[in-house]
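Notebook entry, structure prediction.
Reason for the run: the old model in the group folder had no record of what sequence produced it. Starting over properly, with the input documented here first.
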Amino acid sequence: MHRPDRRVVLGLYRTRHQRDLLEAALALGVRDLDTAFNYAGFASHSRLAAAAADLLPEFHLSTKVGFFPSSAGDSAQVPGKPAGREHSLDPTRLRSALERSADDLGRTPDVVFLHNPERTLRAAADPARGRDLFLAAAGALVEAARSGLCGAWGVSTWDAQPLVDALRADGAVAPPRPGHLMHRVGVLVGPEALTAADALADLLGVDVGGRWGMSPFGGDTRQPFWEDLRVTSLLGSPPPAGVSTARAAFRLAYELPPVTRVAVSTSDPAHLAELADAANLDVDHARVARYRALLESRQRLVDAPI
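New structure, fully documented this time:
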């Protein structure tokens, strides 16, 4: 099966919401923009609209719902401090957030992700209860897409395993099939997380064309261990000249595990240009497969009883 072209997504988790950056992204051919209801202290959508409402229709725009201003009232009531937040899969709250998102953006999002459902599932009494909570939340997003509040829906997860466990719990109702799935990717993702992401994609019926990656650098590339990584060898033998570890790691994020889009946060147009170029690098797929197999073998040794 033909694999769709790799796409770079400008993520707004730690990125400034300014017009010049969005203009630079469009000039580079980056036409995917990702944010969330709770980003920038629950102000990301309104900031985007204020900065560049006329540019937003040029992007494939995705957002996420699942985190809400805290009802506890502690940090939310302290002047000068960001509002607290809490997670919920309550369908009514999700619907309200979707309606506000469209209003604040001035347009409907192309994709809305259910944001980190595992946060609520971990607190469920058992996987079967978690399954029920997820199905109810997913139903709200299915209805939102059907009613025109978004173009499509998906699931975004930092830790896929609780959702895998919930979906494998006994239940007569098959899970709805989202069009999109976002999860962690890259050379720093452990074998268990890679396996869980693949399992979740299978359970939800999302193929590689609908899979998105996030956190390709596991935080940032300023950590000292990046100097010791030798991942450029996975691009081929000999490795391409002049390719930095960071650029190689970004390209490999599309393979570990396989995804079509990778979201990255940056406020520097030059950095975004480097990553857009890196997405076009070739890789040695056989070496990547061996790398993943080595990770899994090492994990089995760690888990083996003494």
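Summary: The first strand starts at residue 7 and ends at 11.
The old model has been moved to the deprecated folder.
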